[in-house]
Amino acid sequence: MGGHLDPKNGVFLGTWGDFGCPTPQRIASYSLSPNRQRPLAGTAHAAFFNTFRRFRHQVLYVAPPFIIAYAAMDWAIERNHYLNSKPGRLAEGGDE
């Protein structure tokens, strides 16, 4: 099984890679590919900086309309409180 008997050198097992033993049969080995081992590698770091980059590029499109809307609502609420007060009724309402 391990080779034939050589009277001068002992037992010859074969050359490197083929030592004369029977080849293993039905041995399955499983491994995980490198890109599947850490599927979320670096996502927290990338998400933080990507969110900052996207915010920085979109803030000038989103913030001015909100600032204008807030200022308009603030003015309208103050004007409404003034018009519904006693001095506002006298100034705008006349003799009502």
Plain-language structure description:
The protein is mainly alpha-helical. The protein has a domain at 61-91. The chain is built from three helices and two strands.
Strand portion:
under 5%
Q: Cα-atom Rg, whole angstroms? A: 42 Å
Low-confidence stretches: none
What is the chain-wise order of helices and strands? Answer: EEHHH
How is the main sheet built? 2 strands, antiparallel
**In whole angstroms, how far apart are the ends?**
119 Å
Shape: rod-shaped
Count of helix runs? 3
Strand segment tally: 2
Strand order of the largest sheet: 1-2
State the secondary-structure class: mainly alpha
What does the average pLDDT come to? 83
The percent of residues in helical segments reads: 55-70%
Family: Belongs to the UQCRQ/QCR8 family.
GO cellular component, one term: mitochondrial inner membrane
Protein name: Cytochrome b-c1 complex subunit 8
Subcellular location: Mitochondrion inner membrane
Descriptive key words:
96 residues, transmembrane, 55% helix, mainly alpha, two-stranded antiparallel ribbon, 3 helices, rod-shaped
Give the SSE map.
Blueprint: E1 5-6, E2 10-11, H1 34-37, H2 43-83, H3 86-93
Antiparallel strand pairs: 1-2
Quick structural summary:
The protein has 3 helices and 2 strands; from the N terminus they run ββααα. It is mainly alpha-helical and 96 residues long. Belongs to the UQCRQ/QCR8 family.
